Amino acid sequence: MSQSLRAMLVAIALAALLPAAAPAAADTPTQIINGYYGLLLKAMKGGKTLGFKGRFDLLGPGVDSTFNIALMAQASVGAYWDTMSEPQRQALVEAFREFTIANYAHNFDSYGGEQFETMSEKETPRKDVIVYSNIVKSDGDKVAINYLLRQDGGRYKVIDVFLDGSISQLATRRAEYTSLIRRDGVDALIQAIRQKADGLAN
Q1: What is the pLDDT of residues 168-188, one digit of tens each?
Q2: Alpha-carbon torsion (102, 84, 182, 75), positive or negative
């Protein structure tokens, strides 16, 4: 047996005796929100230098990893989801994703000394988690924004955002979206969401 082969076998044997490395712990809900806030600050500080497309491209992966877009899109149309074809469902989820990213890229387009703070998290009776946070303006005023997260594949993801601490963004959209479906149909809703996303880019 050659020296190199013997050395390799010894190394393999020694490795087998070592304890296996523990799997990395999943981020907590608060850490997930803090991570997304870090990305928002980066987009804000990039501002006009990045432009809308630059902010959109920067925030896209963060939205995908932070928000359960598919579940939020489904919840936004309520019982109508069950009546939709698979292509319509896919189109709705994609339009909802584009609008969500565009909304953040449009509204967080400049930096004036604002900061984000997370205070605490609380588990709900159904094992979801609420993260309580504020946007702190440069003058010290605070705007409460709370996030409801649910486990998805071993990782927490946002399923609703509460503006001013209590106004469910998802409930507001569900009222708007279901009303539009009743009046004009699912395809009209998908087109309307796409148009809103396009409008935010301009």
Answers
A1: 999 999 999 999 999 999 999
A2: negative
CB count within 10 Å of CB 193 equals 24
Cβ–Cβ contacts within 10 Å for residue 75, how many?
17
* 22-44 confidence digits (pLDDT tens): 334 569 999 999 999 999 999 99
Question: Per CATH, which fold does 25-201 belong to?
Answer: Nuclear Transport Factor 2; Chain: A, (3.10.450)
Report residue 38 CA to chain centroid gap. Answer: 13
**8 A C-beta contact, residue 181 and residue 191:** no
**How many residues are recorded in the chain?**
202
Cβ proximity of 166 and 135 under 8 Å: no
Asked whether 69 and 100 are in contact (CB, 8 A), the reply is yes
Q: What is d(CA 69, CA 55) in angstroms, rounded to the nearest whole number?
A: 19
Domain extent listing, the chain: 25-201
pTM of this prediction exceeds 0.90: no
DSSP string, 153-188: TTEEEEEEEEETTTEEHHHHHHHHHHHHHHHH-HHH
57 touches 201 (CB < 8 A): no
